[in-house]
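Data card: per-record layout.
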Amino acid sequence: MAVNAEVKKNENETAINLIRRFSKRVQGAQVLTGMRTRRYRTRVKSRAVVRKHALKVLRRREEIQELIKLGKLVERMPGERRPRR
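The structure for this 85-residue chain is written out next.
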């Protein structure tokens, strides 16, 4: 979908006014907003990828809980910060 924003110079019109009129025409046609939407759009993750990630998170949580029970990892309270080195 090509949108052309075209302006022609009128008599006794300065270059600054021509650029300003062109900028207004581009904004009105929403050329830049559409371009940014296409540029920064992220793909929707498939169901399989979402499930795989969820299983990975659950597995990691189980491993951490097991290490805490064995005393190999210190449990931190929510909001507690790590000590600075």
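Known properties of this structure: DSSP finds three helices and no strands in the chain. The first helix runs from residue 15 to 29.

See the next section for split statistics.
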